[in-house]
Amino acid sequence: MTTVAVAAARLPARRYLLLAVLALWVLGWAVFDGRDTLGLGGAELTPLHTSLNEGMDAIDDSRNSNPFFLYFINYVRLFLDESVTFVQALISQPSFGRPLPVLGWLGVVALATAIAWLWGNGKVALLTAAGLLSFGVLGLWQESMDTLALTLTAVVLSLAVGIPLGVWAGLNDRFNRLVTPVLDFMQTMPTFVYLAPLTLFFLIGPASATVATMIYAIPPAIRITSHGIRQVSHDTLEAGASLGATGVQSLRHVRLPMAKQTIIVGVNQTIMAALSMATIAALIDAPGLGKTVLKALQTLDVGTAFNAGLAIVIMAVVLDRVTSAASRRVEADRRAGRLRGTRRRRLELAGAFGVVAVLGYLSYTYVWAAEFPIQANLGSYVRQAADAGSLWVQDNLAAYTDALKNVLTNTLLNPFEKLLTASPWWLVLAVGVAVALLVGSVRAALVTAAGLLVLVLLGLWQDSMVTLASTLVATILVMVLGVVLGVWMGRSDRVDTVLRPVLDAGQTMPAFVYLVPILGLFGPTRFTAIIAAVVFAAPIAIKLVAEGIRRVSPTTVEAAISAGTGTWQLISKVQLPMARSGVTLAASQGLIYVLSMVVVGGLVGAGALGYDVVAGFSQHQLRGKGLAAGLAIVVLGIVLDRVMRAATQRADVAAHGGVTHK
């Protein structure tokens, strides 16, 4: 009997068992409605939360006496604070006894444009100049430079750590295996979760923001650098070895030059990750545009949030285009055999930096070249237009947006939330373990049991279930979009060409930006948080589904068409079943991306764990509860990730029909 036959026989049985488990859950909820739900009020604390508060207070009190702080943490914090302050002194804040930074707006625009031209091309240079000038036009020059200062500092430090580790991982298989699960954890853990522990050690301010940004930005630097080192042709390496090159010489003169384009791609991804986190780090008093957006969201000032969000998008686009152009130019120069040390290149460098020196001197010397002209500030008009647009939407589209909100809330969100929050905790735990076992594996079921018990011990069961309900609803919506648009993209090259740039932009824009227009559409509610999470997570799900559809064998598709299969039958009976592993992976990644937006949702009325984390930053007596909420988010993420991974592996086995025969 083949493994295929066994898998085929077991699949319907598992489906029936899953339906039976869900039916028993609903029956149990009806019988035990409201019992053992472990509810906890917003200001209530458990003994664990109180102990965490006391522990955090004890750490604060010992900051200037504990050797660990005195001789390590305090020095690290001082170094990071001074690094950010130094870059701010160069481009954004008064410094060195002057009322202005070293480089004013004219010098910064000139320097950035020159770099874009030298490492990219004329078109990118024009985009860079226009993008930087727009910060002043929006009335956000200093805030934008503060964000840029924090981002650049974090990127430099991330690359200083990430590139050497990436080279090591590319050269050493054992280290690569060791570091991979660590990077997986760093990338799947919701970014907000480690903000609270960081402030405990580095206090609120630039140091904590820099470390938080580095945690998020280092993994792509390591991964992509390692990939670049590993993809160097073995023939090229053997040719170098035959000429007597040592290992170090091979690295310096063969591997690194050949991997330069890939490493620059890693720099691009590191910059995008750092910019995204630099704005989110406003929760711990990071300087810049993120703080402006955060304050505007807290006061429901859509115009100000839109204005600052627009500046963040522009910065993301400029940084992305410059580094992408640099990657393409490096590859073009390598293929053409051109060297950057040629006479023409030296003249270009001398000319560009000569102009930069002159304009930089003007910005250092004259106020008109240092402070952006107030006459060019059009930010008030942008804010007014955004406010007017928000009011128009609320007045004219409220019926449609409310209808959509009510339908999804009443048909999906409320039933999920009621089922999870009104069921006894032990019933939900039993159902969770059974579902993990049926769709995943024994290991996934054990992780689920342990994770749900930890939620009970953290004293945040009720809030965790509310968050889980919102996460599941958002994931369902993500997968609806992912399947519909992903199938469309996978079947049509023209649609792929149109949608892919939109999806790329959606993935590079910082998460805060999504909240602004959605807040104007739906107001501050939990539904707003769900839609923001959907917008954030949908691009990756759509891409993964499209990739799965494209991987379906053309021969199989042609055979189905020749047999008279219609379009809908082809999609539902052939392409989607054969792309099952890709669809399952899309659901897994979509779910993790949704969960990473939990705390952002807490800023606009989502409540539950997201609100607990935010409240922990702003209210001293709730710090312990906020820390526990952050841990609860991590636990939820681990449980959902392990179950989805196990489900993905099971789908892969089913899709490939097994690998062994009996």
Automatic annotation (TrEMBL):
Its main location: membrane. Keywords: Cell membrane, Membrane, Transmembrane, Transmembrane helix, Transport. Residues 144-323, 464-644 form the ABC transmembrane type-1 domain. It comes from the Bacteria. The chain crosses the membrane at residues 16-32, 68-90, 102-119, 125-141, 148-171, 191-218, 262-284, 304-326, 347-369, 422-439, 444-462, 468-490, 502-521, 527-546, 590-610, 622-640. It is a multi-pass membrane protein. It holds the Pfam family BPD_transp_1. It is found in: Cell membrane; Membrane. Belongs to the binding-protein-dependent transport system permease family. This is ABC transporter permease subunit.
